[in-house]
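Entry:
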Amino acid sequence: MKDHARDVTPDLPRTTRRQALRARLRARTRAGSGGVGHRVSVDAAFGTSSSEAVLRWAKDGILSPGVTLIHATGLTSEAWKAMGETGTTVGLAPTSDAQIGLETAIPAVDEALSVGIRPGLSIDVEVALASDMFTQMRALHAIQRMRAANAVHGTDQQPSRITTHDVLDFATLQGARTNGLAGVTGSLTPGKKADLLVVQAEDLNNMPLNDPIGTIVLSSDARNVSAVLINGEPRKWNGQVLDVDLAALRGEVHASREYVLNTTTG
């Protein structure tokens, strides 16, 4: 787990830094519970050391729905129990966990669901991983169902599989909730912002449409998105990105890549 106290108090001893981190977490989560809206995300929360930290935070009264733990692979059952009891939110990064091999390398969806946590989904790092939620949904759906079937192979038990409805929920409503935006976005509900994608159901890779949710999760990808609305304002329409000079952006991206490749630190 990343020692985020290091960024805030680099001149303090390690123990004091950890105490400062706990104090900051406690202050922010209390502020969040009071309606101010502060939230804390802890990246790279996995393995034994993170499990121990989670239990310390639970004992200190820090864990709450205002705290999001990202990845959460390889955590102990005791840590998961504390997270479930406090309503701590979890952001899974399915392709990152599996491809990079973070701790167990298995997205911890079963562990989350077993303690009543419906996780959100995360991409993690776009420079090395697919940057769309279609890929994250499909990866998690496949990995969990493989794991469920493997767990009961050779027995008369039925596997406990998640569904396409589950992963779409993780990518939308639960993703918004995990980021503290459940009252703002994540679903088409009166009073929320009109944030939505329009997916072409009759594109070659999607037709014929039978189950809309199954089509979105199992067949669709970014090329099928014909329109994007953010707070009701079109940002992509008829397959074209609006208000962005793509040629200029492409030039900036290439220049940035060349700078990184050609710059040495000595």
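The chain has two domains: 5-187, 194-266.
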